[in-house]
Each structure stands twice: as C-alpha cells, then as structure tokens.
Amino acid sequence: MKNQLIVITLTGLLLAACSAEKPMEKVISESLAVAMQKYDLMAQEMKSMPDRLPRTLDTEGKLRTEGSGWWTSGFFPGSLWYLYEYSGDQKFRDYAYEMTARVEKQKFNTKSHDVGFMLYCSFGNGLRLAGEESYNEVLLTGARSLSTRFRANIGCLQSWEANKKWQFPVIIDNMMNLELLMWAFRKSGDSTFYDIAVTHADTTMLNHYRPDFSSWHVVSYDTISGKVMVKQTHQGYSDESAWARGQVWGLYGYTVMYRETKLERYLKQAERVADFLINHPNMPADGIPYWDFNAPDIPAALRDASAASIMASALIELSGYVEAGSSAAYMAFAEKQVRALASPEYLAAPEENGNFIIKHGVGHLPGKSEVDVPLTYGDYYFIEALMRLRNLQGK
Ligand code: GLY
Question: Which of 75, 173, 309, 376 to mutate to test the pocket of ligand 1 (most atoms within 8 A of CB)?
Fold first, then answer.
C-alpha cells in the first residue's frame, strides 16, 4: 500500500510536469462515465430478455446473449455492482440485483469449472456491496459444486469434461475459480476448500509452467495414474505458444492466491509471470497484448484487449504486495494499459460497439469465434482496474 502511494504520488508529479498527459483521475472518471452510459443501456436492453446475459456482438454487430450456464454469465452483473459502488446510483443496484438473480441456478452446476467466475463476480460483489445475507448460501453451494470436480490423485479441479482428446483436461484459466473456494473456506471454516485451492494452485505451478514462466493452456492428466499425458492448446496459436489470455489468467490467479494464503511461493509465481509478460519482446509499446505472444503475423496480429484489462487489474493488486522497485514498474505498466484502453482505439464511442465498453477482444481465434469483438469480461476487468486505481487514490 505504501509503495503504491509513493508510485501514485510520483506519477502525479510527473503528470503535472507533462501537460500533454491527461491526469489519471480524469482518465478514470471519464472511462467510468462511458461505462455507466453503455451499461445503463445494456441493462435496459436485457430487461426484455429474461434469463439471458450479454456475451459479445455477433459478426453482424448484433448483441449475442447466453443463458447463465455460459462461463461469462457473472461478468455483466459484476460490472453493474462495480458501477453501483462507484456511483451510489440505486438504478445500478436494481440492475445488479436483477442480473445477479439470473445466475443463481449455477450454484448447482457440477459440470463446469467456471462456477467461480459465474458466482463470485456476481454474488461475490453483491455480498460485498449490499451485504445480502442470502448470497452466502448461493456462494457456499456453488463452492461445494465446484469442489466435486477435484480429483485427489491428480491434485486438480477438472476443467472441461473428458473428450476424445483429453481424459482430464485442466486449463490455466481454472486458477481464476479458486477465489470462490478461498472465500468458502473463510466463511465456513471448512479446510477442504482451502486444501483443494492450494493443491490445485501447486499442481498447476508444477505442470502448467515452462522454465520462462509462460504457461501451457491445457494440461491433460491420466485419471488412473494421475500423471500428465499431454500439454497442448485450445485457444492459442500452437501447443508451445503463449496464448495471451491464458498468461494473464495465471497472473491474476496467483496474485489472488497470495492475497488469500500469504504463501510466498504464489507471490514469487505472480511476479515471475508479470516479469515474463512485461519484458516480452512481443509486448506492444502500449501494453495491449497480441492475442498470442507467438502469433506468426506479429506485428499485424490482432490484439486482445480483454487480456490487457485482466492484466492491468492483476498488476494493480500485485503492486501492493511487492518491493518498491517492482511495485513502481507494475503500477506504471498497469496505468499505461488503462490509458490505452481508455483511448478511442479501445474505448467505444456511443455509436459503436453496441452497448459494450471495450473494443477489440479476441475470444477463440483458432475456432474462428469472437474475433476482434467486445467481450463481457474485457469490460468487467477494465471497470475493476479503474475501481482499483480509484480506491488507491483514496476516492
Ligand atoms: N476461460 C475461457 C477464456 O478465457 O476464453
């Protein structure tokens, strides 16, 4: 915290000396104003579609929605909670309640590793901001459902169901679902949740990471022996490449695991991943990663703005846990990313991008799905990054 304040003060002084750069405070307030305008309209649009939640725009530019079972269902409600936190406007509270309720039935979902994303972003933020007592039960039931996917002889939660290619696939993204388990441990005192989260994080550290601290996307295990069978990709350029969003899920996940456990090994892991990303020769100057760090057509390759949102939010948190030099570097990089995301290149004007906030996300390029589109999680983590910066400024 002290390091972050020093960085913010120094950044402030530097900005004052350089009149060309907009003060960060203004970047934050203007971006959140756009977010409120867009998501007010989105919430009104969603009223006529009961049980649906926004996902992206289709190739014709029309809103694409999903039922609550799709992994992104919690992000829109979560964003509305953040906008309520920012504005104090009851309208956003009402929207947030309504959209959060649409996700509730996922608490019984034992077929998805993404229950953490779905419930913690929606009900987790709702509990934090509205203190809604009934949300505790939803989150605990969800954590129990998620825990059923843990297999002790492997030491991981299973991501996707078994298929022709993979017996027990675990994706790096799954690190993001551990926060729900850590919350459940704190709430219930049941150490099973803690043990599952820590074991999953340790196994992932061992098997998903290469010596340079880039990560494979998918590691599939043998269900009998518990051993690694293959290390491959699903959404990246190649098995050996560094798919951008996977890298930043890992960064965010280990940062959270350090916050929740205070185990030094998770802090070290988060720092090494951050350093790999920040110093990567293919990281563009504005900090918005190409969709894959090894995409063959760099510098013409598409950027994935969602990866930048997630990374910025994670770096802001991580900068509060590390020594002064790293703290300054992480905060400066995150601020650079937020500035780029808040520029007209990425932040949507009123007449573009439907009612989504951030442009130019890449969902699944090899699958030709969600290529250069808005993504609801790109919006969510951008808003989160803005709120984290704002909170550090003591607003
Ligand atoms: N968890 C899926 C993705 O990042 O696309």
Answer: 173
